[in-house]
Every structure is written in C-alpha cells, then in structure tokens.
Amino acid sequence: MTNLKIRGERLWDSLMETARIGGTPDGGIRRLTLSEEDARVRAWFKEAVEAAGMTLSHDLFGNMFAIRPGKNNDLPPIAMGSHLDTQPTGGKFDGVLGVLAGLEVIRTLNDAGLETEAPLMVVNWTNEEGSRFSPAMLGSGGFAGVYSADQVNGRRDSEGISFGDALEAIGWRGDLPPKGQPIGAMFELHIEQGPILEAEGKDIGIVTGVQGLRWYEAVFEGRAAHTGSTPMSMRQNALLPAADLIRAVDAIGLAHAPDAVATVGHVTVSPNSNNVIPGEVRLTIDMRHPRDAVLAAMDAELQSAFARILAASGVSGALTPVSDVAAVAFDPDCIDAVRQATARMGLSAREIVSGAGHDAVHIARLAPTTMIFVPSAGGLSHNPAESTTFDECAAGAQVLLEAVLGYDRSRAEALREKETD
Amino acid sequence: MTNLKIRGERLWDSLMETARIGGTPDGGIRRLTLSEEDARVRAWFKEAVEAAGMTLSHDLFGNMFAIRPGKNNDLPPIAMGSHLDTQPTGGKFDGVLGVLAGLEVIRTLNDAGLETEAPLMVVNWTNEEGSRFSPAMLGSGGFAGVYSADQVNGRRDSEGISFGDALEAIGWRGDLPPKGQPIGAMFELHIEQGPILEAEGKDIGIVTGVQGLRWYEAVFEGRAAHTGSTPMSMRQNALLPAADLIRAVDAIGLAHAPDAVATVGHVTVSPNSNNVIPGEVRLTIDMRHPRDAVLAAMDAELQSAFARILAASGVSGALTPVSDVAAVAFDPDCIDAVRQATARMGLSAREIVSGAGHDAVHIARLAPTTMIFVPSAGGLSHNPAESTTFDECAAGAQVLLEAVLGYDRSRAEALREKETD
Predict the structure, then answer these.
(1) For chain A, what is the largest distance between any 2 Cα atoms, rounded to a whole number of angstroms?
(2) Whether A132 and A271 share a structural domain
(3) Closest approach of chain B CAs to the CA of A273, in angstroms?
(4) pLDDT class for A3, splitting at 50, 70, 90?
(5) What is the reported pTM?
(6) Residues of B with CB below 8 A from A234's CB?
(7) Do A213 and B228 touch (CB under 8 A)?
(8) What are the residue ranges in chain B where pLDDT is below 70?
(9) pLDDT grade for A216, boundaries at 50, 70 and 90
C-alpha cells in the first residue's frame, strides 16, 4: 500500500485542455485520426511527457511510447495508455482518459521522487476509433502483428486517402517496427461506454475480458434512373435490399440478446439525389458477443439473411468481412492487481466484460494486460454528451496508480525469489 | 410547310462541346447548379447566343433569356429552352438538348435569313434538377411566382450555402423581377427519361401534360451511442424506422402501379460511423401520379404509414412536405403545332404524359406551353449512360423548328383576321 495520491485537479485540467483540440460547440470532440487536430494533440502530448522527464519514441504506425526509467531498466516497461483520437461526434473521455491518467501517474511519482522497479510507459495508440480508417484498433493491431504494415498503410478513408499517406502528412511515421517496443504489461483505464456500472452504482469495473467483434461491409448494386419516369416494375433499386438488411441485422442482435449486439452504423447511398433511384448502397455491419461460439452462429445467420435478401432483390451485391476479433480473457495477475487496488481503496467494484473493442485486445497477445473501467453517465459514448465525473476520473487514475505499483512490486519480488533459489 | 433543315452535326457538336464542361470519365456530366461548372457553361451559352446575334438578359434567379427580334417586336417572344444544370451523376442530354436545340433553331433561321413574326427566345432555367438546392425547377418556379424570391434565395445546399449566395458568387444575379420577361408561348424539347418511346419504336413524344409530383423530407431522431456496449434493449436507433419507411414508400408506389411511382432517393445518416448507433437519419420521398386525386390518396397513405412507423419506433421524428406540383395539361394549340409538325415530317409519334417534372410545368401557368420528347435508350436518365442518338436529337430539333414556325404563323394569321374584322 502506498500513500501516494494522484492530483485530480491536474488530471481534470489536462482533460479539459486537450478537449479544446477539435472541441465542438456542443461540448464534444471531433479529432479524427491523423487529422490536423490529431497532429495538434500529439504535439501537446509530446511536450507534456518530455516536461515530465520521459523519453518519447514512435513506430511505423505513429504509435507513441513515452518512457520513465526504473531501477532496473533491463525489465520491459509497464505500460499505461489508450488513444487520443475520437469519433466524428466523440466525447471528452473515450480514450483520452486512459492516456492522461497514465501521464498523471507519472507526474505523481515525479512529485514524490518515487522510482519503480521496472520502467513505466505511457502509450498513445493510433486510430483506435476506426471511423476514418476501418477497422478500429488499427495502430495497436499493426504493432501486435495482427495486420501487416502494408495492410495498415493501405487502408483508405472515404476520400480515398491512405493511412500511410495521412500518417506521413502529419509527420508521425517512425522507424520502430511492429513489436519493436518491449512491453512488460499493460493497464488501460477507460470509460465503460455502457450503462452497467452507473445502473449498479459501482465505482470501478474490473475488466476480465472483451467480447468478440466482427465487422462486415455489404454492398448492393442496382441501376440509377429517374424517379419520375421509371415505372416501379422496371427498377433496380439498391436501397430496398439495404433496408431489409438493416432490419435483419437488428433481428440477429435481438435474437441473441441480452449479451449480443448487432448494428448497421454507416450507410452510403449513391448518387444520393432526391429524384434518382439509388444505384448503389454500402453498409457496415458490427456484431459482438462475449462468446466466440455465439458470434459464429450470428455470423452464419447474417450470411444466410444476406443471401436470402440478395436473391429476392433483383440487384447484385456482396458481403465482405472487414474485421474479426476473437473474445479475449485478460491476464489473471493484472486483473488481481486491479482487484487488490480497489479493495485497498475501499471502492465498490464489479467484474465486467467489455462490450467495446479496445487496444488492450491486441496488446494482450504480446504481454499480460487488463483494463480498468469507470462509469459513463447514461452509458453514453461516441456522443458529445459522454460524461464521467471529476471524482470518477480521479478514482480511476488512483486505481491505475495502485494497480501498476502493486504489479511492479509483486513482479520484482517474484524475480528476487527466482534469484535466491 | 418550310424547307428549312436544322444542321444535325452542328447541334451534336454543341452537345459534345458543352458535355466537356463538368464531364466525367464515365461519359456523364457533373454540373451542379450554380457551381463553377455551371458558371462555365453559362459563359459558353452567353458567347454562343451573342454570336448568333441575340440579346441576352437574366433575372433575379439567374434564368437566362436570349432574344432574336421578329417582324413585330410588340408580340411577346416564343420561347424554346430547358436547363443546363445536371444531376451529380447526370448524362449528356437531360436539359441541355432543349437549350441547344433552341440555339440550333436560331442558327438555322439566321443561315436562311428568315424572320419570324414574333421574336424568338432561347431560355436557360436555373436549378431545374433540384439535387443541390431542393425543390427541383426552382428557377422557373421563382420566375412564375410559384415561390417568392425569399423562398428561392433561402434554399440551402447540404453544406449550408444558400441559393442566393451561390448565385451571387458566380455573378449571375440579374435585376429582372419574377414574370419580368414576357413569354408568348414556350416549347421545351427534352429526352423522355423513360422507356416508353423506345419500347414502342416511336420517334417523337407529343407531350400532353405532366404528372403531379410531391416531395417530402422525413427525419428520425434517436440517440447516438456505442454499438458494442449499448444493449439492444436500451437503444434509440434512428436507422430502423428509416428502413421501414423506405419499404413503406416503395409499397405505396407498387399499390398504385403502373401509373404511380414512389421513391426514397436521398438518405443522410449521422454520425454515420461503423461503431456508433445512428442518432439521426434524414430521407427524401418522391411520389408522382398523372391524376391529382390518386396522388392525394398516396399522400394520405404516406402520412399514416409514417405515423405508424414513428409510433412503433420509440424515437422522435417528423414528415415535412417540400414540394407539391399539381398535374398539368399543356396548351391545345401548342400541342397541335407539335402534332402537325410530326405529321408533316412523316415521323412516328405518340401522345405521352411526362413522368418527370420540367420547367414547362411552371411556365404553363403564364403562357401557352408544351413539350416535345425524344427517346432515351433503356429509359435511362440521371445516369452517365443516358443516351439519345444523333438522328433522334436532330429529329427533335427539326420538330421544334417546325412547331415554333407553325405556331408563329397561325398566331399571326389569327391576329390579322382580328384586325380585318
């Protein structure tokens, strides 16, 4: 047990200061990955970690690694962090809390002049959101070798700009290769982005894993023609099967509720003109479940629903998998470090499976990893109204500090025991 | 009967020359109203009509009037024309044929040194398409007093730019007020934009009227939230009722087929991100029928379908009428002038009701008006593949010449008879 206390005001001030970078009038943030706003928040982060005496490096995908040395710098650093990019209509806490809480932990240790056994690291993962470049968690996925460098760099936004060109343009392409930065463990503090903690009045979510996720792109291709002079019987309207698929996806989610979710979030109609029959429609599909077996069943239902809708539509089309992330179980020692921290602090906590994907999903392939959740008011996220209180943010950062120090201590003890054997 | 022959090559060359202004790689045209491309085609038109010895003026809405004097310039001019703007994915003939065929008629009369009784006029109406600024036929509607000047100038495109500002920006706002240019009659040559003439092997459509048209905007407002961590039971997904409405609109069209058509052509989803539940969806609805009574019944069906869908959806929403154009019967004398022209020329023709709205609909409120149709391959329009042959364009222009001269002669005779009474 330590008597170190993070400074909630300093954390909150950093949250509100960075919230102005890409800040929107409705109190949200629009800071799309690799945009000019992303470049500005990266510059802010660089200045802040260097002011905290850390050494910053970055890799091929623009992932940023800020390191504070420990007593034993042969040990791989214990990482804290998340992402600084946001949704087109994002809030002030999704991702940024995990990065800035890591920074606050470092600042607190600096104030106390306390040195950890292993080095500590604060990370900003590139393009977690996936709204400009699909799929989500692309930077951490590239780092973990889930995607090749070419796959990552080749992803294109809606204007046809590639991830590689956008990264080059803002000047954050580094030399570190995938897995080029050793990681001893990672603790990612994040808002729940769901309604459960608030509904149950819990302070902290001890995250034991992340549900599986599958993304798809569906396209229907009919024939654009004049709405007034093309008889109903002679149409190839791509929007009709799209409407059927939207309903079918929702039905699959409902059929496997309460644990399942299924959503069409993105729709592109072309030419998208009042008096032209839609010639082409593209949709994205997002399906998730904590158990891979159920997710596989949902996948099969989607395939057959799509085939049935396409056959009945009289237009052509295709359903393409874009992303497939298996359900993840986090590291027992990391989870235990969080559990002990909440117990020592006397906080109310519950174990929870994350409904959202996070960078921790990919990093868990490389190193012991877990997450810490704090409540989201109304379960709202990816929304300007996203809200977590001052006290909740501070409690989350304190748990992060305690968990990291606890993990660092117990690992050091384990090593010493080994040596004395 | 005249022996004047329009020059098909000259007309075709003008069509292909203007098709390069906003021309797209797939052979189509993207020349949105009041865009930089629109400014360029207006400059081309100004140069062409002045080279043909005509006097050009333009009104408050940017409608362009090019006049060739006649023997009796106290008579209001007989107008020919249509529009030079296109759909986002438009073809090479929709609108532009009617304007350039009018120009070809003037050039032919100039070559022959033939003077008409009444002055002749070639018109380019602003924003017929309605795809940048809804509703369609906005320029001719403003001229005819269907919309007030404030209504027209206040219409905004998807980026929030107003019609008035866009018109000012390209320098085509004139002083002529609504109805400020006298019109003795108007003949609008246009492609059918439907499959009927081609299917029946007819050269010419003698257009007796235009079907009624109603446009609406529907909006559904739910709550944007994270797709992964928001349980199905706690969602307010605006896309689900939108999907239902797309199907309901199609069903209304089918219920009144073959004469009815009903279409959702434009859909906007926000925030439109793969992992955000759609918080707001906007759709446009286009319904048409040759009989106003049936269109009124379709309107009632839409209202009740919308109310039913909204009530079942758990989100809020509204259905707003955007445009309501009654069915139109064209002028018997103008129709007869076209009928006689086709008969004299030995062309195969059939009477037809236009499925599409046209500027002629609004001008018919002010002056004797009709239209002449030529075939559209496959009935395709608002599509880069839109196609009408060299011979079909030439035949249409020749019918336009004959009809205008015939109408001019018979009206002059009628006047002389009056005087001699």
Answers:
(1) 88
(2) no
(3) 5
(4) confident
(5) 0.72
(6) 195, 379
(7) yes
(8) 1-2, 421
(9) very high
Q: Nearest-CA residue of chain A relative to B130?
A: A274
How far is residue B22 from each of residues B19, B80, B91, B161, measured CA to CA in Å?
Answer: 7, 24, 11, 20
Q: Do B194 and A239 touch (CB under 8 A)?
A: no
Q: Do A230 and B131 touch (CB under 8 A)?
A: no
> Both tokens of residue A356?
């959202």
Distance of residue A52 Cα from the nearest chain B Cα, in angstroms: 34
Q: Are residues B150 and B197 in the same domain?
A: yes
Instruction: Mark yes or no for CB contact B275/A130 under 8 Å.
Output: yes
Chain B positions in Cβ-Cβ contact with residue A227 (cut-off 8 Å): 261, 263, 265, 286, 288
Contact state of A229 with B193 under an 8 Å Cβ cutoff: yes
| Lookup result for tokens 């995908």 | A61
* Cα-only R_g, chain B: 23
What residues in A contact B265, CB-CB < 8 Å?
Answer: 227, 272-278
Q: Is residue A3 part of a domain?
A: no
Question: Residue B58's closest CA among B139, B117, B154, B116?
Answer: B139
Instruction: Tell whether the model's pLDDT for residue A421 goes beyond 70.
Output: no
A341 and A320 inside one domain:
no
B264 contacts A356? CB cut-off 8 A: no
pLDDT band at A2 (very low <50, low <70, confident <90, very high): low
Six token digits for residue B182 = 């006298």
| B403, B369: one domain | yes
Q: b/e string for B47-57 if b means 16 or more Cβ within 10 A?
A: ebbeebebebe
Chain A contact set for B231 (CB, 8 A) = 194-195, 257-258, 261
Same domain flag for A315 and A406:
no
In a shared domain, residues A312 and A178: no
Q: Shortest CB distance from A226 goes to which of B278, B284, B356?
A: B356
* Alpha-carbon gap: A326 to the closest alpha carbon of chain B (Å): 14
Q: Domains in chain B: how many in total?
A: 2
Q: Which of A293, A309, A325 is the last residue of a domain?
A: A325
Partner residue facing A286 (CB), from B88, B227, B272: B227
pLDDT at B248: 98
- In the predicted model, is pLDDT for residue A55 greater than 90? yes
**pLDDT above 60 for A79:** yes
* A98 found inside a domain: yes
Q: Which residue in chain A is spatially nearest to B135 when comparing CA positions?
A: A274
| Contacting residues of A for B211, CB less than 8 Å apart | 228
Residue pair A317/A218 in contact by the 8 Å Cβ criterion: yes
Contact B4, B403 (CB under 8 A): no
**Position B242 in a domain:** yes
Residue B109 lies in a domain: yes
Alpha-carbon span B145 to B154, nearest angstrom: 15
- Give the residue from B325, B358, B377 where a domain finishes: B325
CB contact under 8 A, B195 and A224: no
CB count within 10 Å of CB A400 equals 25
> What pLDDT shows up at residue A196?
87
CATH code: domain of residue A284: 3.30.70.360
Binding-site positions of A for Zn(2+) = 83, 94, 129, 190, 382
pLDDT digits (tens, 9 = 90+) for A302-316: 999 999 999 999 999
Q: Between A233, A265, A288, which is nearest B257 by CB?
A: A233
Q: What is the ipTM of this complex?
A: 0.72
Q: Which residues of A touch B264 (CB under 8 A)?
A: 239, 278
Size of interface A-B (CB pairs under 8 A): 260
Q: Judge if A79 and A161 occupy the same domain.
A: yes
Number of other CB atoms surrounding residue B379 within 10 Å = 23
Q: How, if at all, do strands B316-325 and B78-82 pair?
A: unpaired
CATH code, domain carrying A124: 3.40.630.10
**Which tens digit of pLDDT belongs to each residue from A147-175?**
999 999 999 999 999 999 999 999 999 99
Q: Are A30 and A22 in contact (CB under 8 A)?
A: yes
Domain range holding A146?
8-210+327-420
How far is A351 from A208, CA to CA, in rounded Å? 6
Q: What does the block give as tokens for A380?
A: 């709202």
Residues B292 and B341 in one domain: no
